Amino acid sequence: RFLWADGILLLFLFFRVALPTMVLLFRGEPWGALAAKTLFGPIQYYVIYRMAVEFVDDARKVRQVLFLMILSYGIVSVIGVLQALQVPGINIFLETWYPSNKNMYTFLFARRVTSLWAGDWNGVGIYLAMCMAMGLGTFHLFEERWRRTTVIVISVLNLVVMFLTASFTGIICAVLGLFILLALSPQAKHLA
Fold it and tell me: In the predicted model, is pLDDT for residue 85 greater than 90?
């Protein structure tokens, strides 16, 4: 199935990936890992979107995909905790596989968690605030107790790591997300 959203996403990929790549090739400029990740990173979002459109067609599959997404948020949070605890080798791993345009020593001395976000603590803070809100807003959809517990634990871990980023924007987003969850909850509707 090719949807109208495919056309918009393909247009986005043309201007975000293909056109800048052609310009860099035409100019003969050298590439680094950061440039390749920045240029070709958006393609993965389109691939995930296409997989969802083709394979997720009932409520059970939606819950499975949602649970896998929440587990991936947990991976980001665990890496953030390892970075906050200054586990030997974690910053070298992040600098090698998720290179940044900032100096690694900035993070060692600033003690701000960036996890997999290539030196962007605001980006990871906002991401984890969204993940926390998604987890807390959807944990009741899971029938198995262990899945509900896992989602709640990951959501709390997301909140902790979001505070470790020291991202003011992430904190604002987390507070707004919690207010929205409270406003949308069935109990809040009964109070009104």
Answer: no
